[in-house]
Description:
Elements: E1 23-24, E2 36-38, E3 41-50, E4 54-60, E5 67-73, E6 79-84, H1 87-99
Antiparallel strand pairs: 1-2, 2-3, 3-4, 4-5, 5-6
Amino acid sequence: MADGRSAAAPRPDARRSRWNSFVAVPPAASGKSRALNEEGHPTHRVRVEYDGDTVLVHLSDEDGRGWTTIAVDRATREWSVAQRDNQRDAASAAYTALYET
């Protein structure tokens, strides 16, 4: 099992802030909510989708203009991550990197 990161980020201010959770977006006509967003900040979104082999976690930029996708193989827990301007491209890149030989 390996950990990873893109680069070190500056540590936030020493002040302690409360941790919050993303909340469900009101359901569409289908009656199912398929996304979460930061409460009071609807452009900051997260979505999780899966099939029998792979879990994809999509996280939008704070302003909603770009995406980071983490792909995880369900059997091995191997993972990859990709960042792109849109969710589809980020998902495709992360998925391809995960299963590339």
